Amino acid sequence: MSSTNRWGPFLIRTGLGVVMIIHGVGKLMGVGPAAMSISDFAATIGGLGFPAATALAWLVALIEFGGGVLLVAGLFVRHAAIGIAINMLVATVLVHLPQGFSGYEYTLVLFVMALSLVATGPGQFSLTHALFDGELYWPTVDG
């Protein structure tokens, strides 16, 4: 494996993971540069027409924070990345897309970063690689 292939997933994981942790902490604790209380976030989600807005707000905040931690650690990367990708796709389409390119470019890039991790996995520089010598269970199609 070339050094580029070894470093690529690590760089994407850590960059996306740190961003997700900051946004998750902002919602869970109401602090930091992305601070928004769960109740304010639930009101935003409810305004989009989603039912059970408070429960959904907690779910999104936990996906952002927990998924970010897993990405940085390099554990269950594909699973965490799927949750983050869905989160970013919904945010892009329902919230940011109506604002034009300048409104959705950031969440679109985060979505694509998450998808790249679903495709590549955690990479060599991860706890998954160190502890399990490769990949934790991920279903595959033999053909």
Automatic annotation (TrEMBL):
<keyword id="KW-0812">Transmembrane</keyword>
<dbReference type="GO" id="GO:0005886">
    <property type="term" value="C:plasma membrane"/>
</dbReference>
<dbReference type="InterPro" id="IPR032808">
    <property type="entry name" value="DoxX"/>
</dbReference>
<feature type="transmembrane region" description="Helical">
    <location>
        <begin position="12"/>
        <end position="29"/>
    </location>
</feature>
<keyword id="KW-1133">Transmembrane helix</keyword>
<protein>
    <submittedName>
        <fullName>DoxX family protein</fullName>
    </submittedName>
</protein>
<dbReference type="InterPro" id="IPR051907">
    <property type="entry name" value="DoxX-like_oxidoreductase"/>
</dbReference>
<feature type="transmembrane region" description="Helical">
    <location>
        <begin position="69"/>
        <end position="94"/>
    </location>
</feature>
<keyword id="KW-0472">Membrane</keyword>
<feature type="transmembrane region" description="Helical">
    <location>
        <begin position="41"/>
        <end position="63"/>
    </location>
</feature>
<dbReference type="Pfam" id="PF07681">
    <property type="entry name" value="DoxX"/>
</dbReference>
<keyword id="KW-1003">Cell membrane</keyword>
<feature type="transmembrane region" description="Helical">
    <location>
        <begin position="106"/>
        <end position="127"/>
    </location>
</feature>
